[in-house]
Amino acid sequence: MERADIACTGAGQTLFELAVTGCPAVAVGYVENQRRNMGVLAGAILPVWVDEHDRTGLIEDAIELLLVDTSVRTQLSQGALALVDGHGTDRVADRMIGLARSFEGISS
User: Fold this and answer.
1) For position 55, what pLDDT does the model report?
2) Total count of domains within the chain
3) Which of 5, 24, 30, 79 has the greatest number of CB atoms lying within 10 Å of its CB?
C-alpha cells in the first residue's frame, strides 16, 4: 500500500489501512454496513456505491480519474493522512487496560 500509486478496494477495513499509508483509493461499496466507512473517509477516497444496476462503469470512471489526474491523487492522499494517524489500536489498547485496572479488586 505504501508503494502503490492508487488502489481500488471494497469499502471495508482496508480503507483505513490505505488511508494511514496515504494511498489514494477508489472505495467500492456493495453492502449497507460499508456506507459508514465511506462517509467517515469522504475526502480521502473516491467513493463509488455499486448496486445491481452498475457493476463497472462508475468504478472504471473513478479509476481513470485517479490515473490521469495527479492533483486528485495528491488531494486524496493528503486528506487520508489528515484523517487517520495509524495509532488507533494503541488508543484502544490503552483504554482497555484502563478499564481492566478500574475493575481490579472488585469481586464478583
Assistant:
1) 64
2) 1
3) 24
